[in-house]
Amino acid sequence: MDVGELLRALGEVRRLPPGDPDRRRVEHAALALVRDGQRHRKRDRRRATAAADGALLATTPMGSPARVPDAPLPAPASPGANGLRDRALPPYGSRGDDASPAGGGTLRRERRCYVCKEAFTRVGEFYHLLCPGCAAVNLARRAARADLRGRRALVTGGRVKIGHHVALKLLRDGAHVTVTTRFPRDAAERFAAAGDWAGRLEIVGIDLRDPRQVLGLTGRLLDAGDPLDILVNNAAQTLRHPPSAYAALVEGERRPPVPGASVSAAPGFAGLAPPHEVPPAPAAPADGIPVAPPYEIPGLRPGVTGAPEVSPVAPGVPDVSGSLPDVSGLLPDVSGLLPDGAARNSWSARIGQVGPVEVLEAQLVNAVAPFLLLDRLLPLLLASPRERRYVVNVSAMEGVFAMPNKTGRHPHTNMAKAALNMLTRTSAADLAERGVYLCSVDTGWITDEVPAPLRAGLDRRTPLDVIDGASRVYDPIVRGEAGDPVHGVLLKDYREAPW
Predict the structure, then answer these.
(1) Per the UniProt record, which residue ranges are transmembrane (predicted)?
(2) Cα gap 51→260, rounded to integer Å
(3) Rounded distance, CA 497 to CA 499, Å?
(4) What homologous superfamily does CATH list for 148-320+336-497?
(5) 441 and 379 in contact (C-beta within 8 Å)?
């Protein structure tokens, strides 16, 4: 039956009385047909809208499917980006200019801005999930600078990602910078590739999971007596990677030193000793605090006073001095780690799924080490002749009590970041009276920590990159040097946020 015959048949049906059973059957069938057509057309419109909007977002560097996770992106030139004091920066707390951005286009369906949460349809040439106003602010702040010539800074976790780019910002603004890392040779190679650190960079190998190494490093710095102007507690353990993830990095640390690099090791650090040899316990600190007696927990070698089984790699990693795991065909990511294909990781773990060693490691790296560094290095901060000294605790929204919709995932990292925030909240006012400005900074969503098999099916990209994260960490220093130091607050997206 063709459409014409069907329509003629429907005309015959219309002549039937309203209560006729055959007419009612046809009416029900016709209604179902209409609803089915509406549903399919609505679905097709949604698909077309999603496809068009997805294609538009993919034209931005931040939303491009070709974007490499955790790699820095070159941003378009920002007005006023040159010079050590950028007076063209928009006011703090502003959304910038809402005028139509250059490039980009208009979304068919509005989205919520990652920063201000307001709806927007205009997409600029760089960010895919920021409204035009917030995009303008964030682009400007990426280029913000300060005159730090003659200053000394210590950045933990400066080998890759946010810490690496914080260190580069400090170096490019004239500071003398010390960075810490578990993989000092790899760090030296990365900084050498940047090409603009020229003799003002020192790299220290250290495992922040070992408090004795932290105390040894602080003791050495105190003995040297050089004043400290900036401390950035950036290093963090979010995911505990499997041993195989470190294979390429471990192999790389065996290669000859990078020419011209200034590299040393904290007392007790095994990374610069023969491959994966457990170091002897360092001497007790000068203040006489005794070294803890031997103890045993899973992942620590019995009979050694808390020394990790393998220093640069996670405790519990077997000795790989003879052979590395079979990682043929795998390529390292931006951080030098080999991919982990497990369906679950630290980020998805809930209470009852986190091992005791990982719990301890998260607290030691994320909270205890920052406390010890600030506590022990305070005399050096106070010894600086500068009017303002800065301590930045790099935090995360996972450690914020005011965060709505808190899930049950990664409780161990949540509690560690909450502890770090409390250090800021408790000590900042006292330190500010002595010219040391302490604050916490959320870096923003930079890395998608969802397990790789799940992440592959999400087809999403984070709204910010490592330069945005580093710029947020650097902002309290820029702000302070412009005469507006902040302390005792949590900064998120360059604004004060609830604890």
Answers:
(1) none
(2) 51
(3) 7
(4) NAD(P)-binding Rossmann-like Domain (3.40.50.720)
(5) no
> Is the distance from CB of 448 to CB of 129 less than 8 angstroms?
no
Give SS3 for 370. Answer: helix
Residues 6+ apart with CB under 8 A from 392: 230, 231, 232, 233, 234, 438, 439, 440, 441, 473, 476, 477
Q: Structure pTM?
A: 0.83
pLDDT in tens, 297-322: 334 343 333 333 334 444 433 333 33
Phi, psi for 128 (deg, rounded to 5) = -100, -15
Between CA 312 and CA 309 the distance in angstroms is: 10
Residue 389 near residue 437 (C-beta atoms within 8 A): yes
3-state secondary structure of 389: strand
DSSP notation for 194-248: H---TT-EEEEE--TT-HHHHHHHHHHHHHH-----EEEE---------GGGGHH
pLDDT tens sequence across 454-494: 777 777 899 999 999 999 999 999 999 999 999 999 999 99
CB 343 within 8 A of CB 454: yes
Angle at the Cα of 466 from the Cα atoms of 463 and 469, rounded to 5 degrees: 80
Q: What is the pLDDT of residues 243-294, one digit of tens each?
A: 888 999 999 999 999 999 999 999 999 864 433 333 444 444 444 444 333 3
Compute the distance between CA of residue 151 and CA of residue 448 in angstroms, rounded to an integer.
34
Q: Where are the domains of the chain?
A: 47-144, 148-320+336-497
Identify which of 199, 90, 191, 87 has the alpha carbon closest to the alpha carbon of residue 145. 87
The residue-averaged pLDDT of 416-421 equals 96
